[in-house]
Amino acid sequence: MTSKHPETLALHAGWRRDSATNAVAVPIYQTTSYQFDSAEHAANLFGLKELGNIYTRIMNPTNDVLEKRLAAIEGGVAALAVGSGQAASAYSLQNLARVGDNVVSSTDLYGGTWNLFANTLKDQGIEVRFVDPADPEAFARATDSRTRAYYAETLPNPKLIPFPIAEVAAIGRGFGIPLIVDNTAAPILVRPFDHGAAVVVYSTTKYIGGHGTSIGGVIIDGGNFDWEAFPERQPALNTPDPSYHGAVWSQAVKPLGPIAYVLKARVTLLRDLGAALAPLNAFLFLQGLETLALRIREHSRNALAVANFLAERKEVTRVIHPAYHTGIGAERTAKYLTRGQGGLVGFELAGGADAGRRFIDALELFYHVANIGDARSLAIHPASTTHSQLTESEQAATGVTPGYVRLSVGLEHIDDILGDLSHALDAAKA
Prior knowledge:
The protein has helices spanning 6-12, 39-46, 61-74, 85-94, 111-123, 137-141, 165-175, 235-238, 249-252, 260-273, 279-289, 292-311, 327-336, 352-362, 392-398, 414-428, and strands at 78-82, 102-106, 127-131, 147-153, 179-182, 199-203, 217-221, 316-320, 344-349, 367-368, 378-380, 404-408. The protein is an alpha/beta fold. Helix 3 runs parallel beside helix 11 (279-289).
């Protein structure tokens, strides 16, 4: 498959037919284990002399198609599917950072990621330093000799201001530091590798699935970062790993291609911590992926119509959508969101938290759920839900205020979407 078009890759990359039955649909390989051809074959697999199936906690043929398809769409070299987006975020950093190391992250994050970085990774001895992405140089100022990675979201909610991928990636490469980008809210719309990112992560739970039935995540290796060139900066990939027979990852996998980063994540972190993606969930994500390019265009179109509608309502004091940014936000939108502006819309209600609760309770078509990216429209009040574990100052840093409401605009007819919002806004005034 030589196409570079996501519409084609989503249907054809990584799979043509089942060699045993000629089945066109990717089978669900619901198995734990795989028969080895011989003692030598088994030894070669465990010794990484050749790649193949060992145990479904580490790899699975259904998952493999999903990994290949997503890597092709993103322009990466290989991918690792895991059990959730949170696992993808955690593994992406744990793959590089050890006790005493640090990571510099954008402040503009999903609340669960903030908590993971500020508390759980801290408890594991990894410091995450938060900086405002309004100034890319803030990443350089927060860097020291033990900084192992930069981390950001392409289109962070709730602010929805595109992250300066190219600027921060260039800063990082000067230090020997890779930029890891969570592209969950902007699949198809942005390809972070095109702008210099080294690793892309997704919660496949969101737009990639689109159906709201399955939890999953993926880590995609761009194959574009020379880990071996920075041995002191990247010791996890350049010093013997006692968990895998003393392998030096930047050297050990050269015959297999530029996949040191993602292969280490597979055979150490996934092997040992076990956040494996179930094959059934991989199959369901493949179904969603087939229509992703079509869906994201319609999500973007409906979300823009919603933003324009909200801007005309007197109950709304501010609309948060890429089309309504000014200054640097508008510049970054023009630079990065050339294929569409995504399906998320935020807005501030004049009545604050009480108005937000009334609005949520009055919705009939929108589902009140803690998710984004479904085909159906979703709404939530982040201050009391997704960001409620954060302090008020932390909420403010991420862009969450008491009256903020987040919408994930779905694929329903726009007249029905606007009708439901109008009814709920009327109720919010009470």
